[in-house]
């Protein structure tokens, strides 16, 4: 028979409506909608970043220097290629207020500007006034959160370094703040000229200078960037333009979006189980129809094509519904999402994520329907009797197995391409496949255990009925364990990862972290600084090191980005120090540290882990630009550097002769008793007002806030997966309603009461839910450990509160779904049911 005949059969089958396919459509639509929705929000943010790139950057292009201002030649070239230039400095400092002699201090991120600022966008102040008026003389503006913390109002005075400033207004909108990345302190803005006499911009102080430019219309940004890099290759200049106005934000959005899409794929996999179960249940009901068609001469190919077309049409309908939801929901909630974002977003119909979600949906539908569709070959013309599909062989023909494998590889490959992170995608795919294997084996084990335990339940009919149903072929234990189990496994893994991150921050770090990080300590201030701390019995430890910042420009004479790509060590400037000896707690993992009196060519000791990631080896040459000067050093050793302690750690350490002559300051960490921290800060700030103190506990709180936002987004993605699993669970319960109705009728005929039958149904659901929860918990713990150990490189411990919640959730979910479809079976009249089965 031809394909047209199969299409005609399929069309007639579809006339029966969507009965039995509502869960099928819901699972597919929900999975596609989750991926399309996440992609649409990500595209909206990316479109906003691209559209407002110049505003976020503060100009059409920017040249950035570390530790210094542009020299005359650099400034002249910047002015020659632009129509306007604005000079901005950015650094951390301490704000000090002294009401009635009781000084209060807070960390702030200071931005000093010139008359040209802002080149793009506009600053909004409260009360409303021009920025030039607010910053006139020694005027300043400040973020409301900082002013409220210090009890400041417009007209009040505060101190930065050694100088007093007057708060003119509160800074409510700072157009170029989103591109600034992670800040430990709220913003304070002053004029650069007003910083003279503060002691904050001394040689070696940690500050960055940014030159924002507006460019003539039609400027070729690629050509201009190449010219800037060629002209100032050896000066440490870093170039950015409006095409990537907030690179840190863009990278974060891209990576978080990709990760959430992978979580969405987990939900789609759960939905795929529901799709597979729905197709299998549907084809079981169609056994007699298939056998009749075979009797009338229909070939296996015709039967397969008939139901393939039918399921294909329904799959496309489900995918279309998912795309509509995925596109509409972000548009519907666009005002709310935009209001909660600190960056611009342009919500519109973005076709890219919709196409991506559609491809995922098609591949998932094909992958999870091919196997059950292959079972149509097992129905022969002679099998015109009930339950023929139940006796089908476990595995389909080899060609279907091959097709399933090809589709799985294609789905994973597509995810790798779309996510842009093959490594993370591989881990996610491996976790999903591993969980499915574990859950499938667990389902078989549960049925086997139920069958073995049934005889032992003699004398307890309710338990015996429940175990007998679980161990039988009709209850759908596999569907329950797979669907609910995978959803709970994803949620368990997220819970374990989230819990371990919280523990690492709130429990582990305070045990080893310093009280304060002090920066910008001038060399001549070190004796007095150490004298104050070393004579304090509340101080248990002081670590200090010289501090410079430099940009790795070349590796073995080749551009660093060509060798290391976008590795974080290469991206931007990095801290660098010098030392004559390795230090007491330093572990040399390879090579040898230079002698204490070494005075030869520059040598460098590199962090082992980062060196391995970049691909460095002993003898390689690293060129670092420090204060506009290139220093090329040979790697002579690798060190173990642990950044998780929140102490001092440098990726690069050089011999003293290479760096001692450069202007620099010192950094220091202080470990002290909590009750002594405030006094230490007061004494040091009073004697050395230019020193900036970063309280580590506050920094940890700031990181915790960011992690909470990320964890919240991931939990929402996991919740969508769990919702899909619950829908599949409802589908499994609905599919088994007919068999439970017959079972209830038989039990009633034998004298069982409705209450006992209902308790048996409830016990059956609870046992399956508990089993699914325990297996999911095992898979989630394994997944959480893998992510913590191999991706986040953190210690791992099982979070039992989350684990207990997963098991309880599994029991409640199956109970709700089971009881929802138990009332009709126990209410049916036995005579009608048994007569219908004749």
Automatic annotation (TrEMBL):
The chain crosses the membrane at residues 256-283, 304-337, 357-376, 397-418, 424-450, 765-791, 797-823. It comes from the Bacteria. GO terms for cellular component: plasma membrane. Signal peptide: none annotated. Keywords: Cell membrane, Membrane, Transmembrane, Transmembrane helix. It is a multi-pass membrane protein. The keyword Hydrolase does not apply. It is found in: Cell membrane. Residues 263-375, 719-827 form the ABC3 transporter permease C-terminal domain. The keyword Transmembrane helix applies. InterPro entries: ABC3_permease_C (IPR003838), Membrane_comp_ABC_pdt (IPR038766). This is Drug:proton antiporter. It comes from Thalassococcus profundi.
């Amino acid at each position: 028979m031809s394909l047209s005949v199969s299409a005609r059969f399929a069309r007639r089958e579809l006339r029966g409506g969507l009965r039995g396919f509502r869960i099928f459509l819901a699972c597919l639509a929900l999975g596609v909608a989750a991926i399309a929705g996440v992609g649409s929000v990500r595209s909206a943010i990316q479109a906003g970043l691209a559209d407002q790139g110049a505003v976020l950057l503060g100009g059409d292009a920017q040249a950035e220097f570390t530790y210094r201002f542009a020299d005359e030649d650099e400034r002249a070239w910047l002015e020659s290629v632009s129509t306007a230039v604005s000079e901005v400095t950015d650094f951390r400092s301490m704000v000090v207020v002294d009401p009635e002699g009781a000084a209060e201090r807070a960390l702030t991120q200071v931005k000093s500007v010139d008359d040209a600022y802002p080149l793009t966008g506009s600053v909004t102040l409260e009360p409303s006034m021009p920025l030039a008026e607010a910053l006139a003389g020694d005027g300043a503006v400040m973020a409301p959160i900082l002013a409220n913390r210090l009890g400041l109002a417009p007209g009040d005075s505060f101190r930065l370094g050694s100088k007093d400033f007057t708060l003119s207004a509160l800074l409510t909108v700072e157009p170029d703040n989103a591109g600034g990345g992670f800040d430990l302190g709220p913003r304070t803005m002053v004029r650069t000229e007003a910083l003279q006499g503060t002691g904050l911009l001394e040689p070696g102080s940690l500050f960055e200078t940014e030159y924002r430019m507006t460019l003539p219309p039609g400027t070729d940004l690629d050509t201009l960037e190449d010219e800037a890099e060629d002209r100032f290759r050896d000066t440490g200049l870093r170039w950015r333009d409006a095409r990537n106005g907030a690179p840190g934000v863009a990278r974060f959005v891209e990576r978080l979006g990709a990760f959430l899409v992978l979580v969405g794929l987990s939900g789609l996999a759960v939905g795929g189980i529901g799709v597979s179960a729905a197709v299998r249940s549907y084809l079981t009901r169609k056994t007699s129809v298939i056998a009749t068609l075979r009797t009338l001469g229909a070939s296996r190919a015709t039967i397969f094509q008939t139901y393939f077309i039918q399921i294909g049409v329904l799959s496309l309908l489900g995918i279309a519904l998912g795309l509509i939801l995925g596109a509409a929901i972000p548009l519907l909630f666009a005002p709310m999402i935009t209001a909660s974002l600190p960056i611009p977003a342009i919500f519109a119909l973005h076709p890219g994520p919709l196409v991506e979600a559609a491809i995922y949906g098609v591949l998932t539908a094909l992958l999870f329907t091919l196997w059950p569709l292959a079972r149509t070959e097992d129905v022969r013309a002679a099998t015109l009797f009930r339950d023929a599909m139940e006796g089908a062989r476990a595995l389909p023909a080899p060609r279907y197995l091959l097709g399933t494998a090809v589709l799985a590889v294609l789905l994973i490959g597509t995810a790798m391409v779309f996510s842009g992170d093959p490594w993370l995608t591989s881990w996610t795919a491996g976790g999903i496949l591993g969980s499915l294997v574990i859950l499938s084996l667990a389902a078989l084990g549960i049925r086997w255990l139920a069958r073995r335990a049934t005889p032992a339940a003699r004398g307890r009919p309710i338990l015996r009925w429940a175990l007998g149903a679980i161990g039988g072929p009709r209850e759908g234990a596999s569907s329950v364990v797979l669907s609910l189990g995978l959803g709970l496994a994803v949620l368990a893994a997220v819970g374990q990862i989230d819990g371990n991150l919280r523990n690492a921050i709130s429990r582990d770090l305070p045990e080893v972290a310093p009280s304060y990080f002090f920066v910008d300590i001038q060399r001549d201030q070190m004796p007095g600084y150490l004298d104050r701390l070393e004579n304090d019995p509340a101080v248990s430890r002081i670590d200090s090191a010289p501090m410079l910042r430099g940009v790795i420009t070349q590796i073995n004479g080749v551009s660093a980005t060509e060798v290391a790509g976008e590795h974080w060590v290469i991206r931007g400037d990095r801290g660098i120090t010098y030392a004559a000896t390795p230090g007491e707690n330093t572990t040399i993992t390879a090579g040898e540290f230079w002698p204490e009196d070494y005075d030869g060519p520059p040598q460098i000791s590199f962090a082992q882990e980062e060196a391995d990631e970049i691909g460095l080896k002993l003898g390689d040459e690293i060129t670092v630009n420090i204060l506009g000067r290139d220093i090329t050093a040979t790697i002579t050793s690798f060190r173990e550097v642990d950044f998780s302690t929140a102490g001092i750690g440098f990726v690069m350490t050089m011999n003293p002769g290479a760096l001692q002559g450069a202007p620099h300051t010192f950094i220091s960490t202080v470990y002290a008793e909590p009750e002594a921290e405030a006094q230490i800060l007061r004494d040091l700030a009073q004697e050395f007002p230019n020193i900036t103190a970063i309280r580590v506990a506050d920094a940890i709180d700031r990181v915790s806030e960011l992690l909470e936002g990320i964890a919240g987004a991931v939990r929402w993605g996991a919740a969508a997966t769990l919702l899909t699993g619950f829908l599949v669970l409802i589908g499994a319960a609905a599919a088994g309603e007919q068999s439970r109705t017959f079972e209830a009728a038989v039990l009633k005929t034998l004298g069982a009461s409705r209450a006992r039958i209902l308790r048996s149904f409830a016990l059956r659901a609870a046992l399956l839910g508990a089993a699914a929860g325990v297996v999911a918990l095992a898979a989630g713990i394994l997944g959480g450990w893998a992510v913590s150990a191999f991706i986040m490189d953190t210690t791992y411990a099982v979070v039992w509160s989350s684990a207990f919640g997963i098991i309880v959730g599994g029991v409640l979910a199956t109970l709700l779904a089971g009881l929802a479809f138990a009332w009709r079976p126990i209410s049916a009249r036995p005579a009608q049911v048994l007569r219908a089965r004749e």
